[in-house]
């Protein structure tokens, strides 16, 4: 069984990735290792630089970065979603959206792998949806309580991980990554 | 006369630095060169990494990073002020501050130099102030129209560069940097 060292401090991401990648017979272990996150509006650039900055060499490395891009806020909070969550929070984003009719938004995830053979591959997943008027649900993390993906009436925070993985940006990016891994092993 | 290559895309910063550093007989030239900006809540870390990332070796390098840290928003927008300015803008920050009695904020600047001899030195400047209820003034850049420094009744955007340099975070950091340079030449 392949094992990926997921370099992240976010245990929710590890849980989502573990449950999803199990379908592909890929195992995930959370590892805390130094990585450099650059400022960029392109998540691919952030993930590529981070993969190159990791000094751990005896493992397959997985790094994932994600952001919520809100149409009427010109893509805010985007790559800085976790800082925005920590400072202004869900309530801050709802306040910014007060009176705005266009509630369109998308969650974007970019997942990258650096293999033991030092190959790097990067995959993107996106999900369109809308920003609610009030937070709903207690599962998930970050801005999950205010995002309803297209095709559902629930917020991400009202879904179990398995259901969130049907819709989510992160699941889409990780499926592409898993298929790349499996394709290479055949 | 010493000349510093100021690696920045912001011509307002270059103007402020030029006018201030002239007092110290130091000249500033705007240079566009690649630099890596990392994500960090510590401006010193951002500036140190950026200085190390610059490949230009035949010049004294100046890099400066700044942010507006608003008390009641837990330090938002902080190091990501320029992204916040581009996306939600001055109006977005004022909307976040609606109904907030604590208008306290501070502008922080960190200026760093990497000399021809490859010495690195980093200096911090801060200015306390308040966030206005409406934007005022057309000078300066970024969040200048909504920040009134302690000791003045004008916003930064209502001040000429010379007056802004009496109060500003950037001027304070650059004065420290200039004194360091001059101290070394004696």
- By DSSP (H or I, 4+ residues per run), the number of helices of chain A equals 6
User: Could you say which overall geometry of chain A the principal axes of the C-alpha atoms support?
Assistant: globular
The total strand number of chain A stands at: 7
Q: Uncertain segments of chain A of ≥5 residues (pLDDT<50)?
A: none
SSE topology string of chain A? EHEHEEHHEEEHH
**CATH architecture term of chain A:** Alpha-Beta Complex
Mean pLDDT of chain A: 97
Beta-strand percent range of chain A: 25-35%
Question: Main β-sheet of chain A: number of strands, strand sense, barrel status?
Answer: 7 strands, mixed
Count up the domains of chain A: 1
Distance between the termini of chain A: 14 Å
Helix coverage percent of chain A? 25-40%
Oligomer state equals homodimer
Give the topology.
Two copies of one chain form a homodimer.
Chain A: E1 2-7, H1 11-22, E2 26-31, H2 43-53, E3 60-70, E4 77-78, H3 81-87, H4 89-96, E5 104-114, E6 120-131, E7 147-149, H5 161-167, H6 169-185
Parallel strand pairs in A: 1-2, 1-3
Antiparallel strand pairs in A: 3-4, 3-5, 5-6, 6-7
Helix pairs in contact in A: 1-5, 1-6, 3-4, 5-6
